[in-house]
């Protein structure tokens, strides 16, 4: 096999020469190696997402476990892992160049054992139950925050996989990688409500849960993921970018534009994934009272939205490969405006069916937008590389590696900022719920349901804020990437971003 068609290795798990743009190399060697790394990356990232959003379901079971929390405290418990996960995405992206994809995927998988162990052994312990309410809340908040380590896996995984695939296949590959991880949200919201009531008599449903199972169930899979990553994944020498790539990306305005768009797409997906089960519980208590199975075993159907968003993500990459990411992203924001208006109508009419269906559309649009926005990144920075080459009279091939590294850096940066958008969504909901939470304080049973029904419209101010944000982001997408305007304010329309 010629030097062009083989991946030269240096040491355990390292590939020295990697050229997926070479058709001969890709067909004979690259495709097989890339597929193996993608499969293992998806598995580990899936578990990372599952641990990250675990507390979105756990908070619903805290009252049944003898650890009741107020609405505001519950929103903080689902916000904490989102905030931590967003914050660590940048260092997780740096970790791939520092340690290599194989080593860091192994380490990031092992770290997932920490939050799962805290949930399995600390949260359901008699020691915690013996503490006063305020102490219990702060301990629970710390345990929830540690689950944020699962949120970092996404950035390191996406940055790593972006190096394995040629430009023409990046959209679908990155979309598939992200979708496999995003599916962890739906799986955890479907599986954990069933797991925590395992062994509980039917008559006792809703009054007693085994919270330890919510942590224990993931541990065997985490161990398998870590072992497989160590044995079968690879590190690419090309991926060992220096910090200058990240510094250069941070200085470029395109990084911040794309990051804002990702706040609207991925921020919506993860923010609503965390918050929707709690929003449903506090907005439609009478619906859940009439459908006990949905309440106790399906977490208010919140998992369906996350499933729709996850399945739609590869479609976003595929459509972007064909029509351009900017066009798809603009259509996404338009769809999210219409669907959120419909959700507000469901709240006003107190129609759970309308509200829920509208949010399925929001989730599906956010999933497509996740894929389309990420597909835009390598196209934008590839075009910037060609511009620089033309300005300096160079061969574009000479600037391409530098801009590929910048694109990988932007994937990490945008991922972190987008995840922070999820935290903002939850905090908007928390602030909007202040009056309802105050009215419900101390109320139980039928009284709590009555108060919740009287304040059923508490989420409307939050929904209108989201609608306005999507309109602004749609305008930004058109202005930066689709507008064919005067030369003093050029866009990327001609580059088919």
From TrEMBL:
<feature type="transmembrane region" description="Helical">
    <location>
        <begin position="462"/>
        <end position="482"/>
    </location>
</feature>
<feature type="transmembrane region" description="Helical">
    <location>
        <begin position="211"/>
        <end position="233"/>
    </location>
</feature>
<dbReference type="InterPro" id="IPR044772">
    <property type="entry name" value="NO3_transporter"/>
</dbReference>
<feature type="transmembrane region" description="Helical">
    <location>
        <begin position="254"/>
        <end position="277"/>
    </location>
</feature>
<feature type="domain" description="Major facilitator superfamily (MFS) profile">
    <location>
        <begin position="257"/>
        <end position="497"/>
    </location>
</feature>
<feature type="transmembrane region" description="Helical">
    <location>
        <begin position="297"/>
        <end position="316"/>
    </location>
</feature>
<feature type="transmembrane region" description="Helical">
    <location>
        <begin position="174"/>
        <end position="199"/>
    </location>
</feature>
<feature type="transmembrane region" description="Helical">
    <location>
        <begin position="38"/>
        <end position="62"/>
    </location>
</feature>
<keyword id="KW-0472">Membrane</keyword>
<protein>
    <submittedName>
        <fullName>MFS transporter</fullName>
    </submittedName>
</protein>
<keyword id="KW-1133">Transmembrane helix</keyword>
<feature type="transmembrane region" description="Helical">
    <location>
        <begin position="407"/>
        <end position="425"/>
    </location>
</feature>
<keyword id="KW-0812">Transmembrane</keyword>
<dbReference type="InterPro" id="IPR020846">
    <property type="entry name" value="MFS_dom"/>
</dbReference>
<feature type="transmembrane region" description="Helical">
    <location>
        <begin position="353"/>
        <end position="377"/>
    </location>
</feature>
<feature type="transmembrane region" description="Helical">
    <location>
        <begin position="74"/>
        <end position="92"/>
    </location>
</feature>
<feature type="transmembrane region" description="Helical">
    <location>
        <begin position="135"/>
        <end position="154"/>
    </location>
</feature>
<keyword id="KW-0534">Nitrate assimilation</keyword>
<dbReference type="InterPro" id="IPR011701">
    <property type="entry name" value="MFS"/>
</dbReference>
<comment type="similarity">
    <text>Belongs to the major facilitator superfamily. Nitrate/nitrite porter (TC 2.A.1.8) family.</text>
</comment>
<dbReference type="Pfam" id="PF07690">
    <property type="entry name" value="MFS_1"/>
</dbReference>
<dbReference type="InterPro" id="IPR036259">
    <property type="entry name" value="MFS_trans_sf"/>
</dbReference>
<feature type="transmembrane region" description="Helical">
    <location>
        <begin position="328"/>
        <end position="347"/>
    </location>
</feature>
<feature type="transmembrane region" description="Helical">
    <location>
        <begin position="104"/>
        <end position="123"/>
    </location>
</feature>
